Amino acid sequence: MLKKIIFLLAFAITASAWSQGTTSPYSFFGIGNLNFRGTVENRLMGGVSTYSDSIHLNLLNPAGLAKLKLVNYSIAGSHKFNTLSTDIASERATTTTLDYMAIGFPMGKFAGAFGLLPLTTSGYKLENIDGTSTTQYTGSGGMNKVFFSLGYALTPNLSLGAEGNYNFGKISNNAVTFQEEIQLGTEENNQSDLLGLSVNLGLQYQKLLSGKLKGLASFSYTPETKFVSENARQIATVLLLPNGNTSAIDQRDIELANTDFVYPSQLTFGLGLAQERKWSLSAEVSAQKTSNLSISTVDLDNVAYQDALKFRMGGFYIPDYNSFSSMLKRIVYRGGFRFEETGINVNGNAISEFGMSFGLGLNLGRSFSNINIGVEYGGRGTKDNGLVQESFVNVFVGLSLSDKWFEKRLYD
After folding, report:
1. Backbone phi, psi, residue 20, to 5°
2. What is the value of pTM for the model shown?
3. pLDDT digits 0-9 by tens, 392-409
4. Which tens digit of pLDDT belongs to each residue from 235-250?
5. CA separation, residue 55 to residues 64, 209, 213, 365 (Å)
6. I need a surface site. Which of 42, 161, 325, 329 has the fewest CB within 10 A?
């Protein structure tokens, strides 16, 4: 049992790893960092999902799918530049990730979507020095989800939606401990294969207020659910080699029972104003019952889980959607900011995160397809009590390709 953690240094696990997705030391806790589950368009507006249109997918609120009028293929990736700092050291790391792949298709008053995206990510390398003992912690992996969503336009102003998710993945945690002047050390490796089902429910409402001005409201809810963790543990006596690697002298497999862990519920409510194909501004608040999060792979006395709270605000602006003379006037300008209490408390410090984003949506020719690019600057954590403070820059690129299926030909 670890009684006290002092983060002295954090290193990059890889320079570029599609499956890794993070170098954050805070992914050490629980099942890793909870990833943003929306599109690049949402991310560049601070993460809000209150506004939906007819040519983009809404992966955060399934009710937004009801507005979809064209078949849409969406895929996106991001590159993260992360600086990790303590009172005595600083390191830089980069990661490249595939953020999501999804297809949406309209069906009259219904619309559906399915795809794949990473749900959580874990990736860290930490060192804890306690007197004459040194322990190095490394971890990798995470959870992914395959989802199917369905939205329905109950009335022209009100739409409902539901999403079913199959969640799966593996998390590896490794700890190697050495004592000064002792050649042999101990190594403990824990593997958790994670599996579970979850749902997400949504509602969106819009009302014409005056002229072209619309009022927007959205609601989404993810109920608490239990996932299964198939656990395995291996303990070894190891020899420290001159190159810094270890070689196992004696190795034993420990049988562990499967366990259940709780994936916390989340409730999101948003309000906004919009003028169709011109501008939109929304604000959202999300409450997540992170205090109910439980997982048994790592037992820590100095870590507590609290309820998480997230605030987001953002929107877009289009100078002239129908302009034929200037491509610049058809550009979609997006921006936003967010502040999040992650729900993790380490050494008495509540870990919070903030981000500010800006991006552009560029039409591909005269079609409804577009490429969305942008950046986000933000930070997480603190240097207090020996913890690590992160500052990061995320670069996003997403493709939203729209097409029409089942269109009857006038001529053969």
Report:
1. -80, -65
2. 0.87
3. 999 999 999 998 765 554
4. 998 887 777 677 888 8
5. 11, 24, 20, 15
6. 325
